[in-house]
Design goal:
about 325 residues
């Protein structure tokens, strides 16, 4: 059993990682449908929230069917982060998650996201102040450290626990590493097995199959798993991982027909939440992943990724289903 705030998971939770321009309501809907135990919003700028920016405020939209759900915020100014957390609290999430791990240059170079790992005392101070300011459980997602010479996660985890967080997710890379190379779970395991750590530790990084999920869970004894990039265009990975962890049985990939049906549903939900044309624009990265590795697919992919006509998209999906029947 794993408890995060007021939420109790009877089995090892398998969660959807927050990802910018990915984990919108339409994608969370599908991941929840396939068994994701907890989902998170795209990360939301604290500055955007306190300035009532339309794009940031829209990201606060969460729905009862996706619970438990967390709202993730980022920033580097204590007063702005506290104010943003109070705004996020009004949306009634199950947790407020603090993003101290995003390595994107436009975020990290100004000291937010993973950039906060260069100022760990400020990072902990912001966390403490937010925990004190809101009644919603607060969690943190971060990385091993800013760079190879400053892997501070073991001591940082203890300070964050002392600040009052309810759970900690650790991505097994440094900030400067971005998404290059392989995730190193060694220090994640060290934190998870630290006798001084009593909060749940969630492992994240390179979980792209049920077998890898089980290996990381058994080897490093984390309390939960978080899947990010491997879920893009593959929301069924949550069902596969959970089934394998519980039974040792590998479920097959969905058939092409099922993938086409999911792509249609995803498109419908994307347009429902974001309207045209944005709902179509943001589906394009998912379309690429839904239909990876189909032979001779490039001409169809180009059409699929350039049209803004929903009827044309459905005709292309019909064509994919007929042309690649049996894949």
């Amino acid at each position: 059993m794993v408890r995060i705030g007021n939420t109790v998971f009877e089995h090892t939770p398998v969660m959807l990682a927050p990802m910018e321009d990915i984990t919108d309501p339409s994608f969370r809907f599908l991941c929840k449908r396939f068994g994701a135990d907890m989902v998170f919003t795209e990360f939301i700028s604290s500055d955007g929230l306190i300035r009532d920016g339309a794009k940031s405020v829209k990201k606060l939209d969460i729905f009862d069917y996706e619970r438990p759900v967390g709202i993730q915020i980022y920033g580097h100014i204590p007063e702005a982060m506290v104010a943003a957390a109070r705004i996020a609290e009004r949306a009634h999430p199950d947790v407020i998650d603090l993003n101290f791990g995003c390595p994107m240059r436009k975020i990290a170079r100004r000291g937010a996201g993973a950039g906060m790992l260069r100022t760990p005392n400020l990072l902990v101070e912001i966390t403490r102040r937010i925990v004190e300011a809101v009644s919603v459980p607060v969690t943190v997602k971060t990385r091993l450290g800013w760079d190879e010479e400053n892997k501070i996660i073991v001591s940082l985890a203890r300070h964050l626990q002392d600040a009052g967080i309810s759970a900690l997710t650790i991505h097994g890379r440094t900030g400067t590493q971005m998404y290059r190379g392989h995730a190193d779970w060694t220090l994640i395991g060290e934190v998870a097995n630290d006798p001084n750590i009593t909060i749940p530790i969630i492992g994240n990084g390179d979980i792209d199959s049920p077998q890898k999920a089980k290996e990381m869970l058994e080897k490093y004894k984390v309390d939960g798993l978080m899947i990010g990039r491997a879920a893009i265009g593959r929301p069924w990975i949550f069902r596969q991982v959970k089934h394998y962890l519980q039974t040792g049985e590998l479920l097959p990939e969905p058939s092409l027909k099922e993938k086409v049906e999911l792509a249609r549903l995803h498109l419908q939900k994307s347009i429902e939440f974001k309207e045209i044309p944005r709902g179509i624009y943001e589906m394009r990265r998912h379309f690429v992943h839904y239909f990876k590795n189909l032979p001779g697919f490039k001409p169809i992919r180009v059409r699929l990724l350039t049209t803004l006509d929903t009827d044309e998209i459905h005709r292309i999906l019909d064509e994919i289903e007929k042309k690649y029947a049996g894949f």
